[in-house]
Each structure stands twice: as C-alpha cells, then as structure tokens.
Design a protein that fits this description.
The protein is an alpha/beta fold. The chain has 21 helices and 31 strands. Strands 3-2-1-4-9-10 form a 6-stranded mixed beta sheet, sandwiched between helices. Strands 11, 12, 13, 18, 25 and 26 form a 6-stranded mixed beta sheet that branches. A 5-stranded antiparallel beta sheet has the order 29-28-27-31-30. Helix 4 packs parallel to helix 5 and helix 14 packs across helix 16. The two termini are 17 Å apart.
C-alpha cells in the first residue's frame, strides 16, 4: 500500500506560542512517514485562527484531499501553561464534610487564592457510611455564585468510597446555575481529600479553556470537510476522545510533553534518554527507560501543585523562549533571571501592532534615565467578556483602560500598587504583557528571524540601560545583553536537566546541586574542589528553538545532545502514534465481620461472601473500563485486570482487610471509514 492510498493522520499541537501541525502516513517504513509539517502562531483569543493557519499550510504542502484524513489527534500545553502561570477561570469550591483547617493541607489554600469556598456538613467514613448531609448553605449561595464564577468543584469526605453526597451537590448546582461541575470522585479513586479537592479545583478552572480549544478544532475540521474522529493526548501519553477530554481537562496537563516523549522515541529509536522539550513558556524534562516514559505514581506536579493526575514523571520549569527577562535585585553584579512568567516577545508585538509598539519604545529610549517599567506593554488577550466576571473595582477599572492595542505600562500605571492589580489580570488570562525575552535576544543576534528584529533591538537597548549595584549600565550594547540572555538560557537548561536526573535518582537538594555543578562548569575559575558530572544517557532536545539553545549543552551535562530532524513538531507527531488507555478501579472493604462492601464507579453494594464481592468488583471494573474505552475513542480495547489484597493473620487465621481491583483497557483509536 502506498503512502498516497494509505489512511492519513493529522497531528496538531497547540502550544503557548505556536500551533504545530503534521500530516503522517503509516506507509513509508516501520515508523511511517511525515508528509508535511507547518507552524502558525497560537491565537489565544480565537484558537481556531492558529489551528487553521497550521493545518491549512500542511494540507497545501502535501496537496492532500482533506477527506483522506481518517484520524485527527491533538496535544496541547495550554493546561500546563495555565497552571504554571497561575491562570484559569474563577471557580467555586464546595467542600462537604471538611473543615476550614483542611484548606491548609497539600497547597489547597494557595491554589484557591481569592476564589470562593463553601463548606457543607456531610461526607462518609472509610467504609462509605454517610454522615448527615446539609446543602442548605450551598443552595442559598448559588444564585450569587452562579453570576460570578465559570464553574464549580465539589469534593466530599471519602467520596471515593461513596460518591452519593457529591452527586447530590452536583445535581443541585447544575439545576440552579447550569454551569460546569467537577466532582472529585470522577477524577481519582485515591484517598487524600485535600489533594483530591486541589485536583478537582484545577480541573474546574481549566474546563472553559479546553472547551474552547476542542470547539475551535471541531469547528475548523468541519469547515474543511475533515470528518474524522478527534482525539486528545492525556498527560500519560495515552489518547482519549475530545468529548472525554472536555469533561476531564486536568488529565491534559502535561499533554504536550507526554506527546513529545512518544514523538522523541518514534523519531530517534532511543530506548534510554533524557528528553528536554523547550517551548515558548516552559521546559519539560522527563526520562525514557527501556522505550517507555517513567510515570509519576504520586501524581503530576505542575506549577508547584501536586495533583492526583497520573502522568509522565515530567518536571516542568517556567523556562522558555518567551520567558520574562528580569534582573536580580540588590546585587553589585546582578544576574540575568528568566521566567517563570511568559511575556509576549517585543518582536512579536512589533510584528502584530507595528508603530503602536515602536513609538512607545523609542519614547522610553529618549528618556534620560531608565525606568523599571521600560519595555513593557499591556494588551487584552481577547477572551470572551464573560470570563472577566468577578473582577474587583480596581481590577475592572484597570481592565477598562487596556484595549486591543498595546499600551505602555509606564503610561497605564500611576502607582506601584497598580502593578499587583495588573498581575492579577494577567493571572486571570485577561491581559498579556509584552516585554524583552530570549526570543527577542535571538532576533537581535540574527539567530531567529520570524518576527520583527527592529522592535526586538529596541527592547534589548532598553534592557541594556538598566543599572547594576554601582549605578552602571549592565551592558554596553543590545548585542552584548542578548548574548548574556541566550547564554543564561542554555545554562539554566542544563541546570533543569541535571536537576531532573538528580531527582529521579532520589537525591535531596537536586536544584542546589545542579546549579553549583553547572556554575563550576562555566566559571573561568572553578575553585579548589574540582567537580564534574555526566549523564548516563544522551539528551534528546525537542522544540523549534532546541537547535539554538541546546547547541552548548553537551559540555554542561557530560553527554551528547540529539536534536531530531522533525524536533519542531515532535508533539504533533507524538499525538498521532499513540494508543487509547483508560482504567477503572474498585475497592472492597469489610466494615464489619462477614460483610464485604464493594465501591465501584458511582455504586456501593454489600456482599456476605468475599469471593462474591471480588468477582462483582472485577465484573464492575471490566464493564466500566470497557465503557470508558468506548467513550475515549477505541472499539478494540484489550482489558487487563489486576487485584491487590491487604490481609493479616491472627492466630493462624487469614483476616481480610481490603482489596483494590484495577482494570486497564487499551487499544488503537477508531478511525473514519
């Protein structure tokens, strides 16, 4: 069968800066063949614009009939970036059976921020026995909450053993407000209420973002006559249907990085490697062992929050081509600092808005003295107005002043206190800040040329005028400061790669040790104690800017760095070569001697015989996994069941304590006929 007559697969990756597309065919060798690839800027105000730009370019390059595409698969870093940058919709958290003191556990209070929380009596014990449920307080608060939030997160005490109270609250909220509701038992079967509540809260925040992404993609595909199933990559590298991802967007955190691991393995054939994927907003580092990515059994950590989402053991750092460039405070020879926040590069802002940007930068250059606000502009993101619900008076007033044309921050803000207000608007995803980034530095030095280099140079000139602790300019020329920024990015890339390796080896203080080792490697006078380190496996560098930023990595990490030919679309390629994989769990406990309680899905049943209870649990999880596999997009799932028992021996007699039954269903996604 030739590539022309084989089914075609379209992979899309929607990143923080670029949307990538790749057209792939199973024909053309063991690894198939990339027929065409393309990039377009991600357009956050209307994601369909960026998607159509990339996909249309791919279809034109390949001269392909859209009807020949039989499967579309998408990965995204939007959820990851949102959590790293602290963005997302305003949601209300409903805690049933918990106290206010529980907010202090597992980072829940920090994640909640200023979003509202409602406490209700209720919940269950470890065996699923119910306390008295009282939702009157929630019912009274719903009319006001419904007008000020974009969704709800519901978590009840021991809901994984009996979800009845979460279901009651969910039905009440939906009936009164009509807004999306996430219940914690839908996302995880693990114990640990506050962390489950955290995971549910983050899921609720991401729903509107992922919903917009899926809707934009579906609308574009329909307009182009592509009648193929749409799949989304989960954080563990598995594929699920778009409808499945819409309900559980938290599972798409690390979607892009997980797809990149699949793509890295596919492109290089390496079974053992450290994979480092640098994008505009983040660098994601993970380890390939024996051809498979390591999974994090404790749940993915993103943006400083440990979730209950099973995902690749990926460490995500706020370090990328569009990272904010700042200067260390209070030092005689201040260091260049990068990230974790993403800015719109000035080169990109200049390309999109022309004189509106350059006139302001030139005005600031003419000023006799530098200002902390130099080289910064604010512009609305263009998201729907309903997402601006719940702004404070100060936030609403400032938001009103910011429009679709970038406005210089030194003209916008009249006091330092307003800077915090602006940052809150950025964290809500309502406003972008443009400023000097490594991407601008690359434009200044002629190492990147896709945006406006003249605007980038103005930004570099403004940044070079900043003062050190002696009152001197930190760099003599725009080129000098740009070299320092790019060198810093390569050095920090080595640090995060080594930090990941040390953490995987279980070493404490990984970040500190990694920093010290890299600093010694680049220092002209390394000191009395000579230190060196070397990875036991090569680095695979992914991302469009990897050839630039990773060229100097080998001497810093002590091993080769491979940058594959299609590294710029690794995520999109990985998205089309994966499999559907879903699971279902059941717990069997013994609340009293001779009574065996099965909690599976949303049902709780009692049995008088252990064997009957285990058999029922296995039947339940098999059926649930099969149903989830169909919903996730495969008609050919193979199901494996594993059971784990906790027992004790008392006076020679076996005593049953608990059983955990897991079913895993996997298969290739269904394709259009």
């Amino acid at each position: 069968m030739t590539a022309k007559s084989s089914p075609l697969f379209l992979g899309i990756d929607t990143g923080g800066t670029y949307t990538d597309a790749v057209l792939w065919s199973e024909a053309g060798g063991a690894n198939g063949k990339v027929l065409a690839k393309a990039k377009a800027l991600t357009t956050r105000h209307d994601l369909a614009v960026g998607i159509s730009g990339a996909v249309d370019a791919v279809l034109q390059k390949a001269a392909t009939d859209p009807a020949a595409i039989k499967l579309v698969s998408m990965s995204t870093t939007l959820a990851t970036n949102a959590l790293v940058e602290g963005q997302g919709g305003r949601v209300a958290l409903v805690m049933i059976g918990f106290s206010e003191g529980d907010l202090a556990r597992d980072g829940l209070k920090a994640a909640l921020g200023t979003d509202p929380v409602v406490f209700c009596p209720g919940g269950h014990d470890v065996h699923g026995n119910a306390a008295k449920l009282d939702l009157s307080g929630l019912e009274a608060a719903l009319p006001e909450l419904g007008a000020s939030v974009s969704g709800f997160a519901v978590c009840a005490y021991f809901a994984t053993r009996n979800p009845a109270h979460e279901l009651s609250a969910r039905n009440l909220i939906r009936g009164i407000t009509g807004l999306p509701v996430t219940a914690s038992h839908e996302l995880s079967a693990k114990l640990g209420g506050p962390r489950r509540a955290l995971t549910t809260l983050l899921n609720a925040r991401l729903i509107s973002m992922i919903d917009r992404l899926v809707a934009a993609t579906e609308g574009f595909l329909a307009a182009r006559g592509i009648a193929a199933p749409l799949m989304v990559v989960r954080g563990d590298g598995a594929l699920v249907s778009a409808a499945f991802a819409r309900q559980r967007p938290i599972e798409t955190i690390l979607s892009g990085p997980a797809a990149s691991l699949v793509g890295a393995r596919h492109m290089t054939g390496l079974d053992n490697a450290v994979v480092s994927d640098i994008g505009g907003t983040t660098t994601d580092v993970a380890v390939l062992d024996q051809g498979r990515p390591r999974l994090d059994p404790e749940g993915a950590t993103v943006g400083g929050f440990r979730t209950m989402v099973e995902a690749v053991a990926m460490r995500t750092f706020g370090l990328g081509g569009d990272s904010e460039v700042t200067l260390e405070d209070g030092a005689l020879n201040p260091r260049i600092l990068l990230g974790p926040r993403r800015l719109v590069p000035l080169a990109l802002a200049g390309m999109m808005h022309g004189e509106a940007v350059t006139v302001e930068l030139e005005r600031q250059i003419r000023a006799p003295n530098p200002s902390r606000m130099d080289g910064r502009l604010a512009v609305r993101t263009g998201v729907p107005e309903r997402l601006a619900a719940g702004l404070t008076g100060a936030e609403a007033k400032l938001y009103e002043l910011i429009g679709a044309t970038p406005l210089a921050v030194d003209r916008l803000l009249t006091s330092n206190a307003q800077n915090a207000t602006l940052n809150r608007l950025v964290s809500r995803g309502l406003v972008h800040v443009a400023g000097f980034t490594p991407s601008d530095a690359a434009h200044v030095l002629g190492k990147q040329a896709n945006w406006d280099a003249a605007t980038a140079r103005l930004g570099a000139e403004l940044f070079a005028r900043k003062r050190d602790g002696r009152g001197q300019a930190i760099a003599a020329t725009p080129e000098a400061i740009s070299e320092r920024v790019l060198t810093t990015l390569t050095r920090l890339s080595a640090e995060v790669i080594l930090e990941t390796a040390f953490a995987e080896d279980g070493l404490d203080g990984a970040a500190t040790v990694a920093h010290a080792l890299v600093q010694r490697a680049v220092d002209a006078h390394p000191g009395i104690a000579r230190l060196s380190v070397a990875l036991d496996r090569p680095v695979i560098g992914l991302g469009a800017s990897a050839p630039l930023h990773y060229a100097g990595l080998p001497p810093l990490v002590g091993h080769d760095c491979l940058v594959p030919e299609d590294t710029d679309v690794a995520n999109a390629l990985g998205a089309v070569v994966g499999q559907v994989r879903v699971s279902a769990e059941a717990r069997v406990s013994q609340p009293q001697e001779g009574l065996f309680r099965v909690a599976s899905g949303e049902t709780v049943r009692d049995f008088l015989d252990e064997a009957a209870a285990i058999a029922a649990a296995e039947t339940d999880v098999r059926a649930i996994a099969a149903g989830r596999a169909r919903d996730a997009g495969t008609d050919s799932a193979e199901i494996e069941i594993a059971s784990e028992f906790r027992v004790s021996t008392v006076e020679g007699q076996r005593m049953f304590i608990e059983a955990h039954v897991v079913a895993v269903a996997s298969g290739r996604p269904r394709i259009a006929v």
